[in-house]
Amino acid sequence: MEKISAVEDFLTCPVCLETFKEPVSLGCHHSFCSVCLHNYWDQNSTRTCPVCRRKVSKDFLDVNFALKELTLSFTQKEQAPGGERPVVCSSHPEQTPLFCLDERRALCVLCVELCERHIRGEFERLHRFLQQEEESVLRALRQEQSRQAQAIEAQLQQIREELCTMEQNLQTVEDLLQRQSVDFLTQYRHTHKDTQTLLSQHSPQLGPGLLINQAKVLANVAFNAWNKMRALVSYSPVTLDPNTAGRRIHLSEDLRGVRRGDKQQVPENPERFCKYAFVLGSEGFSSGSHQWDVEVGDHPRWNIGLAKESVDRKGEIDITLENGLWCLGLYRRKYFGFGKKLSLKRRPQRIRVRLDCDEGKVFFFDA
Questions:
Q1: Which of the two residues, 149 and 194, has the higher pLDDT score?
Q2: Is the whole-model pTM more than 0.70?
Q3: Can you tell me the distance from the alpha carbon of 248 to that of 265, in angstroms, rounded to the nearest whole number?
Q4: So what's the pLDDT on residue 354?
Q5: Residue pair 173/199 in contact by the 8 Å Cβ criterion
Q6: Residue 99 above 70 pLDDT?
Q7: Which long-range contacts (C-beta less than 8 Å, at least 24 apart) are formed by 113-116?
Q8: In this predicted structure, what is the pLDDT of residue 192?
Q9: Within a 13 Å sphere around the CA of 282, how many CA atoms are in the beta-carbon half?
Q10: What does the DSSP 8-state code read for residue 161?
Q11: Neighbour count for residue 249 (Cβ, 10 Å)
Q12: Shortest CA distance to 354 belongs to which of 299, 303, 285?
């Protein structure tokens, strides 16, 4: 009841304290009945907001049709048997909607929260991947440090052994030099040869692999992570626009899949198709070449293709070029394209649509 009361307060004119009639909105985002606002200005000889007293510079104020439609819908539901409330979202009919001043339409509170959770979930998944990739690179660095330590230890052991041998050789030379001079002179030739052999040994040499292989660890770290991330995420050239979806259109959470289902209670906004189970992509094209694949599988009925932005979305239309629709479709086991019956050799499971805006051509392929 508190939420319903909040909606009633939102749809109430602050001047007459009644439900809006021909509401107009000021730059300060306060709204009033058009007649109430002008009467207030005439009585007080001032053009200010009756609530915040902010000066109004506009000479003419347009009717806020979105707020007017919301008011009418709420009023009709109030007057209906059983006192049914306006339903903005069929998935959460018990929720009282919010009204977005920027988009000028009612919004489901939970659906807004679902969008936020979906966004956070996508980025949390990417954050986890980057953390795991960071740990993988650091693990490779630790393995390289361990390999380096083992290589250094092996080299040090070899150097110790060679130093020990040199010390033994030096001790032998000293022993020979300390002998009596006669013996030394007698054995000079042999002694000279032995000492030259002992002292001429090479000094210990360092082997390869004693430094960390930085190139191996650091090479293309960011690029390799990005390259692996490509397998984690997928790009969709077409993101469906839920604001254009007909009442029987049910979109997937990521806005890339669609199915036909039961009718939903959705706002009658200008972008939405009313008579047909149609939905448009969120992006339009006016130049360049674009293509995308559509999985139709074994669905018994479908239409895919392109539509002009100016296509009629409220009335009944035929899927023809004259009505701004370039489509390929399946209906009652028969294929149609550009308003004509087609004969296909096999049933396509995936269809590729290619649009060449510069040449003004649309192509359909069995992908």
A1: 149
A2: no
A3: 10
A4: 92
A5: yes
A6: no
A7: 114/253
A8: 57
A9: 12
A10: H
A11: 22
A12: 285
